[in-house]
Design brief:
Mean pLDDT: 95
Largest sheet: 10 strands, antiparallel
Radius of gyration: 20 Å
Strand order of the largest sheet: 6-7-8-9-21-17-16-11-14-13
Number of strands: 21
CATH class: Mainly Beta
CATH architecture: Distorted Sandwich
Structural class: mainly beta
CATH topology: Beta-galactosidase, Chain A, domain 5
Order of helices and strands: HEEEEEEEEEEEEEEEEEHEEEEH
């Protein structure tokens, strides 16, 4: 029995030690951290943020967008998109959502596989943003906790909102909830939410029964956006032969922002954005709201045609359905 316990402890220690977190410079930022398990790597920033600016296979392409002219800089007087993954408050507000995140954040290596990034209290909102990034010992799984804490004196009606900017040239895939048949399934299952500038006649959109695709086109002249709800929220982005997947769990569409959305996708001629949203809440001073995303990255992926059968074959084994 003792030998068995010792073996389990050693196995756990070995698995944890497989993840390496080290301070590093990245394209002009001197105080970044790199998380890697030898297969994939993430770069998180502390000179600005909190933000994950890179995710990719070790030595491979960054599947996240980078704005080259903004990388390595800090202290700007206006909000900078920069690229990568960030946290916002929803619904979108032209001032409050765009609160500055151009100053240093605190980094704490919580364990051998987890780093916690905590931003300063925002002057514009009284909110404090926190991102907890945990990398699996093997494989490509990443858990990201997106947390907002109300440090102000007044309550705020809001939701957590996690936005990931993807590198140009790929195709985003939004997963609809399970489909049914008429007349057996009469109740609505999900919204399909349009923005004022949404144009479903744009050739970048493609619908199937189970999925909504949005292509990122660097030559496009107008942005596009749409949202939907899925209890088992899932989206994917195919960039070359790398497939990025992110998932979260939603509960009640009546509590979601933006007319019931748990997932939204946006594109312009610079990037495509994959967005998940938590529940609306009246966030009292001192309270926090969060939602957790699960990421994974897959190589040598090919989708021969944008049909349910082809997408099912690739995606369903990766999202556990």
């Amino acid at each position: 029995m003792l030998k068995c316990s010792v073996a389990l402890i050693l196995l756990a220690m070995s698995a944890s030690a497989a993840v390496k977190i080290e301070k590093t410079t990245y394209k002009g930022w001197p105080n970044c951290y790199r998380l890697s398990n030898g297969e994939v790597e993430l770069i998180v920033t502390t000179d600005v943020g909190p933000r994950v600016i890179r995710f990719g296979f070790a030595g491979g392409q960054n599947v996240f967008k980078e704005f080259a002219e903004q990388i390595g800089k800090s202290g700007e007087s206006t909000w900078q998109p920069r690229g990568g993954h960030r946290i916002w408050m929803a619904p979108e507000d032209g001032v409050l959502s765009y609160a500055l995140d151009n100053s240093p954040v605190q980094a704490e290596i919580k364990s051998a596989d987890t780093i916690v990034l905590t931003g300063p209290v925002e002057k514009e909102t009284g909110l404090q943003k926190q991102m907890i990034v945990k990398l699996a010992a093997t494989g490509t799984a990443v858990e990201v906790t997106n947390r907002l804490t109300n440090k102000g004196a007044h309550a705020r009606e809001m939701a957590s909102w996690a936005l990931t900017m993807m590198a140009p040239g790929g195709t985003g895939i939004a997963v609809f909830p399970p489909r049914g048949t008429h007349p057996k399934d009469l109740a609505p299952t999900n919204p399909l939410v349009m923005s004022a500038y949404t144009d479903f006649s744009d050739p970048r959109w493609h619908f199937t029964k189970k999925y909504l695709m949005l292509k990122m086109d660097p030559n496009a002249t107008s942005p596009q956006k749409a949202g939907t709800f899925n209890k088992n929220t899932a989206g994917a982005y195919l960039l070359g032969s790398d497939l990025f997947v992110k998932q979260t769990t939603a509960r009640d569409p009546a509590k979601q922002p933006d007319m019931g959305c748990s997932y939204e996708t946006f594109t312009n001629n610079q990037f495509l954005e994959m967005e998940t949203l938590g529940e609306m809440t009246n966030l009292q001073p001192g309270s926090s709201v969060q939602h957790i995303e699960h990421w994974s990255l897959h190589k040598n992926v090919k989708i021969g045609s944008w049909t349910d059968d082809q997408i099912d074959h690739v995606l369903l084994p990766l999202i556990g359905k």
